[in-house]
Design a protein that fits this description.
270 residues, 2 domains, 12 strands, elongated, binds nicotinamide-adenine-dinucleotide, 10 helices, alpha/beta, Rossmann fold, 23% strand, Dihydrodipicolinate Reductase, domain 2
Length: 270
């Protein structure tokens, strides 16, 4: 099989650079193009040199359509409105579109899913790490096994992160809600401030911390009257998100058009 010609969106970003390094290190993928928005300082630079992967002779451009010309795969960790636009470009080209962008509204998620049915092979995940995807299963199980325990999801990220709670925190909350057969939207408490009254039984609470360069810390706390279980994950470098995104791209290349999750890629069953 020839190498999959891979395009990196948001190439100058934190994940964009990790994804460039990962493409360069992954057999079966070759960097085809990289782009960012027109006012990015990354425009015109060699993608490999900027990302610390050595010269790759691919200059970072500002035109998504030109970058996608002749491509097989688009890796997209950008921003919600950008990912919706890119999904519309990926669908008619039948691309593999791996989306790591978080903070999408329900409408944006719906627009992206529609592109899956229009020809793209989309893998979208709020977290591409193997560990978090294992943790989701453990949280579902624990929430089901401990029905009377209060569930709180705590997360901390770096001070540049723009959405809260994190996509991963919401996925963990969803896993807990699935374990309890309840609707997350109806039971989530995303902010507490002032005189809140006692905790509502059965609710799933979220707490968000921001600071420094923290890549991603998540804990799910199940608190009973006499004991407390804490299930935690700590991301130590962005390379593991990128490695998961590459695994998703290689997997999706042999799937029919559609909308997939990381659980599909990893073969995790309920
Ligand atoms: P970042 O701000 O460092 O990078 C985003 C990049 O997108 C920037 O270079 C920006 O210029 C670029 N961009 C913005 N508009 C664009 C456009 N119109 N065309 C092309 N490029 C454009 O952010 P980051 O830390 O790399 O995170 C990016 C996204 O990935 C966030 O939503 C974050 O939450 C998410 N993320 C997901 C995972 C995961 O495993 N799913 C892991 C880490 C981060």
């Amino acid at each position: 099989m020839t190498d999959l010609r891979t395009v990196i969106a948001g190439a100058g970003g934190r994940m964009g650079q990790a994804n460039i390094r990962a493409v360069a290190a992954t057999p079966g993928l070759v960097l085809h193009a990289a782009f960012d928005r027109p006012d990015s300082a990354a425009i015109g630079r060699d993608a490999g040199e900027m990302a610390g992967a050595g010269r790759l002779d691919v200059l970072i451009g500002e035109n998504a359509e030109a970058a996608l010309d002749g491509a097989d795969v688009l890796i997209d960790f950008t921003a919600p409105a950008v990912s919706v636009l890119l999904a519309e470009l990926a669908a008619p080209r039948g691309l593999v579109h791996v989306i790591g962008t978080t903070g999408c509204s329900a409408e944006e998620d719906w627009a992206i899913q529609k592109a899956g049915s229009a020809g793209a092979r989309i893998v979208k995940a709020g977290n591409f790490s193997l560990g978090i995807n294992v943790l989701l299963g453990l949280v579902r199980q624990a929430a089901r096994a401990l029905p009377g325990y209060d569930i709180e999801v705590l997360e901390m990220h770096h001070n540049k992160k723009v959405d809260a709670p994190s996509g991963t925190a919401l996925m963990l909350g969803q896993a807990a809600a699935d374990g309890r057969d309840i609707d997350l939207g109806q039971n989530a408490v995303r902010v507490r401030d002032g005189h809140t009254g006692p905790r509502a039984a059965g609710s799933i609470g979220f707490a968000t911390l921001r600071g420094g360069g923290v890549i991603g810390e998540h804990s799910v706390i199940l608190a009973g009257d006499t004991e407390r279980i804490v299930l935690s994950h700590s991301a130590q470098e962005r390379g593991m998100f990128a490695a998961g995104a590459m695994q998703a791209a290689l997997w999706a290349a042999s799937q029919p058009p559609g909308y997939y999750s990381m659980a599909d890629v990893l073969g995790f069953k309920e």
